[in-house]
Design a protein that fits this description.
The chain is of the alpha+beta class. It folds into two domains: 100 residues, Arc Repressor Mutant, subunit A, CATH 1.10.10.10; 155 residues, 3-Layer(aba) Sandwich (Chorismate lyase). A hairpin with a 3-residue loop joins strand 3 and strand 4. Helix 1 crosses helix 3, helix 2 crosses helix 4 and helix 3 crosses helix 4.
Length: 285
C-alpha cells in the first residue's frame, strides 16, 4: 500500500540498505538525524492503512507503524517539521499536530532546542493469569532485578472494601503497604496491599516480597481471585510511573487466600498499560 497525502504520492527514493547513509550529523549522544528522504521511504514501506482518518491521524498511524515494525529505531532523530512537510506533501500544521499526538502517546520525545526522537522502548512483560506469583518472583523469572520505592507503611483501620474482602470487622486493624514497584529501575506498577494485622504484625518486616514474609508466618497464599479493569492514571499515579497523565493502565484487584480459605491479602495495583500484557489460556468446554 502506498502512502498518499493530499492526493499526492510523495517522491521517495528506494529504502537505503545502510541506515547510516541516511543520517546527518547532529542530535544528542552523536545520534544523527534521519534524512527526510529516508524518513519518507520508511513510512511509505509500512502498511498502516487509515485512509478514512483525518490527515494528521493518517500521518500518526504511519509513523507509529514504522516504529512498531522497526523501520524507525529507538533514539532515531526525525527530520525537522519543514522537511517532513515537504517530503510528505502536507502542511507544517499537520506535521506539528501529528508529532504532538505521538509525543503524548509516548512514542516520540521532543527535546527543546534539539529535535524530535523516537522514544526508547519499554520492554513488554507478559504475565499468565493462571499462575499465582509475587511481583518479585515474576520479575526474577524474567531475569529482571526488582526494587521498591515505599510510599507508606502503616497500621490502621480498614476501608469498607478492605474489610469486605478480608472478612474483617470495621474495628479490626490492617497493615497497609503502598509502594512503587520497579524492574531494572523502570517503574512498572503502583501497589497497595492490605494484610490483616493479626497475620502481619509489623509492616516494616516487608522488604521486597510480601509473599516471602507471609510464607515465614505460615500464611502463604495458595490461590487468588483477580479482577482486571481498564483505567486512566491521575496526575500522581502518572508521575510515579513516569508516563503522561491520563495514560492507560490496568487496574487489578486481587484477594489471596491461604490453605483453609482464609483471606490473607487484598491488593489493588495499577500496572502500566504500555508494558504489561496479561495472558490467559482458554480451552473449549
Amino acid at each position: 500500500m502506498e502512502l498518499v497525502f493530499n492526493g499526492t504520492v510523495p517522491r521517495v527514493e528506494p529504502l537505503m540498505q545502510d541506515r547510516e547513509e541516511a543520517r546527518v550529523n547532529g542530535g544528542p549522544g552523536s545520534i544523527g538525524t534521519l534524512d527526510a528522504v529516508f524518513f519518507a521511504a520508511a513510512l511509505r514501506s509500512d502498511n498502516a492503512g487509515g485512509g478514512s482518518l483525518p490527515l494528521y491521524r493518517r500521518l500518526q498511524a504511519h509513523i507509529a507503524s514504522a516504529i512498531d515494525r522497526g523501520r524507525l529505531q529507538p533514539r532515531d532523530a526525525l527530520p525537522g517539521e519543514r522537511d517532513i512537510a515537504r517530503s510528505m506533501a502536507v502542511s507544517r500544521v499537520t506535521v506539528r499536530k501529528a508529532l504532538s499526538g505521538l509525543v503524548e502517546a509516548g512514542l516520540l520525545d521532543q527535546l527543546q532546542g534539539s529535535g524530535t526522537y523516537v522514544s526508547r522502548r519499554s520492554p513488554r512483560v507478559e504475565q499468565a493469569l493462571s499462575r499465582l506469583t509475587s511481583f518479585t518472583d515474576d520479575m526474577r523469572l524474567r531475569g529482571l532485578a526488582t526494587t521498591s520505592r515505599w510510599l507508606h507503611r502503616e497500621v490502621s483501620l480498614p476501608t469498607a472494601r478492605q474489610a469486605l474482602h478480608l472478612a474483617l470487622s470495621p474495628t479490626d486493624r490492617v497493615c497497609h503497604l503502598r509502594r512503587l514497584r520497579l524492574a531494572n529501575g523502570l517503574p512498572m506498577a503502583i501497589e497497595l496491599a492490605s494484610v490483616p494485622h493479626s497475620i502481619l504484625g509489623d509492616p516494616e518486616t516487608v522488604d521486597e516480597s510480601l509473599y516471602a514474609v507471609l510464607e515465614t508466618l505460615g500464611a502463604k497464599p495458595v490461590r487468588a481471585l483477580q479482577r482486571l479493569a481498564a483505567a486512566n492514571l491521575d496526575d500522581e499515579a502518572a508521575d510515579l510511573l513516569a508516563v503522561a497523565p491520563g495514560s492507560a493502565a490496568l487496574s487489578i484487584e486481587r484477594v489471596a487466600y491461604r490453605a483453609g480459605g482464609q483471606p490473607v491479602e487484598f491488593t489493588h495495583s495499577f500496572f502500566r498499560g504500555d508494558i504489561y500484557d496479561f495472558v490467559a489460556e482458554l480451552t473449549l468446554g
